[in-house]
Design brief:
Length: 504
């Protein structure tokens, strides 16, 4: 146990030995964002004396537990409310390392997904042990504020001098990355070789971090899985959400500070209502506030905000199937189709339908929504980085799950347990089934991601040639039982979006 005692800049922490590695859980990287610190940027953790035990995960950020259960319930599994505790005192991180020996190993910092309203760094399929044991990588996972507490925008109502930020969740992530830069060497990591990785809202967070001045220099590489720089609210749009929040709580708009005294249970009660009214994930997501995020991330990337950052990114072939199941089916939204493509709307839907072997308009709509929300934003981020000369690798995950009669296909989040090599976790088995053939693909993806974390290049000898992404070949690695390389996959459908402004 003594080899898992590490001195940080704030005090000593004691983890525990897990096989050949050391694990630390629940290390504070910021002060509890409670009371007067609600809705404000995180402050550095308070130092402590003695040795602090760090052997158990911290509480999750406040969230509506039933929302997480709905994803599992949508595919016919038993709905179970997450029993883990929640608390506003949630800004903690976890570390898996081969040894606390100042060995200067590559570091991966993971940012979890969950539509900016649910999830936690303690979710079991984000376990970093395999990266540490098999690939000599130091893994860090961190919590950040979610929902109202993480992303409500109060600055325009309270005034610039109030100190409020609508991007508290992102600033929490930056605070965690700063902590890593200051302390990770003592845990066996290299502070100059950090890769930030995330899926879904975690990847969308990374897209924002790529454009945030405060995040520059805190990471060398980025992995974005099923999330990129989509449509983000402006300060004016986010202010309308804040006004609706105050109205629902019966608070005077001139006394925004009263929100600091509202019980967290009351905030969580109205949060789903606000989400439904203001477009789901867009109600509580990063905001272009002109300060912490000066412009849309794509505009910042075009100005070279992350030109030195190598990027690995991609999407799953059937992303939207999960959300269609959660919503009760794939109903074609004619108004949205018209908004996106105007007079060409029906022709576009016909092309998506013709591109499918089953010629199903409903599944064609799922493909179109997968492109709108995930694939096209990823391609646009890749294009922006390529134009800056940054190294970019693109993939698509096509492995179709046999679970639940195959209804999920290669749905959103299906790739997570393959990347982390956590196929034996209960939720992973639920989503992917139990076929032994899964492990071979997990071994390849896990090793490829590890290679990128180590060197900035995901190619490994057991894969086909995988060149960098460019605007001519658009080389894309297709992850399936037999991985293959494709040039500009679904290129005819991609071209339909070239002049379309992405909206949700």
């Amino acid at each position: 146990m003594s080899e898992c005692i590490v001195e940080t800049r704030y005090g000593k922490v004691q983890g525990y030995q897990q096989g050949a590695i050391c694990v630390w859980k629940g290390i504070p990287f910021a002060r509890p964002p409670m009371g007067a610190r609600r809705f404000r940027p995180p402050e550095p953790a308070e130092p402590w004396t003695g040795v602090r035990p760090t052997t158990a995960f911290s509480p999750m950020a406040p969230q509506v537990a039933e929302m997480g259960a709905s994803m599992v319930g949508a595919i016919g599994a038993e709905r179970v409310v997450d029993p883990r505790p929640i608390s506003e005192d949630c800004l903690y991180l976890n570390i898996w390392s081969p040894a606390a020996d100042q060995g200067k190993r590559p570091v991966m910092v993971y940012i979890h997904g969950g539509a900016f309203t649910i999830g936690s760094a303690s979710d079991p399929w984000y376990d970093g042990a395999s990266f540490a044991e098999r690939h000599n990588i130091v893994v860090v996972s961190l919590n950040y504020r979610l929902g109202i507490l993480g992303f409500v925008y109060l600055k325009e109502l309270a005034g610039a001098a109030s100190g409020y930020s609508g991007n508290c969740g992102l600033l929490d992530q930056i605070a965690g990355l700063r902590w890593v830069r200051e302390n990770i060497e003592a845990f066996g990591g290299d502070p100059d070789n950090v890769t930030v990785m995330g899926e879904s809202a975690g990847a969308m967070s990374i897209a924002a971090l790529l454009g945030m001045p405060a995040a520059r220099g805190l990471f060398k590489r980025a992995i974005l899985q099923s999330g990129a720089a989509g449509d983000l609210p402006t300060g004016a749009e986010a202010t309308r959400v804040a006004q609706a929040l105050l109205a629902r709580l019966g608070l005077d708009p001139a006394r925004v500070e009263a929100l600091a005294e509202v019980p967290v249970e009351s905030l969580l009660k109205v949060q789903p209502e606000l989400g439904r009214e203001f477009g789901g994930v867009r109600a509580f997501s990063p905001v272009i506030d002109g300060e912490t995020l000066p412009q849309h991330p794509l505009a910042m990337l075009a100005q070279g905000s992350a030109k030195d950052v190598a990027v690995l990114l991609g999407t799953n072939r059937d992303e939207w199937r999960l959300f269609a199941l959660m919503g009760g089916g794939a109903q074609i939204n004619e108004a949205l189709l018209q908004q996106l493509f105007g007079e060409a709307a029906q022709r576009v839907l016909a092309l998506y339908t013709a591109a499918r072997e089953d010629h199903s308009p409903e599944f064609a709509w799922i493909d179109l929504m997968s492109d709108l929300v995930f694939r096209i934003p990823a391609i646009r981020l890749a294009e922006a980085q390529v134009r800056q000369g940054a190294p970019v690798w693109m993939y698509r995950f096509d492995w179709k799950s046999p679970a639940f009669g195959g209804v999920l296909g290669a749905a959103h989040a299906m790739d997570i347990p393959f990347v982390f090599n956590t196929l034996d976790v209960e939720l992973s088995r639920l989503f992917t089934g139990t076929s032994p053939s899964r492990q071979a693909l997990a071994d390849l993806m896990h090793a490829s991601w590890a290679a990128f974390i180590r060197t900035g290049n995901p190619t490994i000898p057991s894969l086909p040639e995988w060149p960098r992404y460019d605007l001519e070949r658009r080389a894309t690695l297709i992850w399936d039982e037999a991985p293959s390389l494709a040039e500009d996959p679904q290129g005819e459908l991609r071209a339909l979006w070239e002049r379309v402004r992405l909206v949700f």
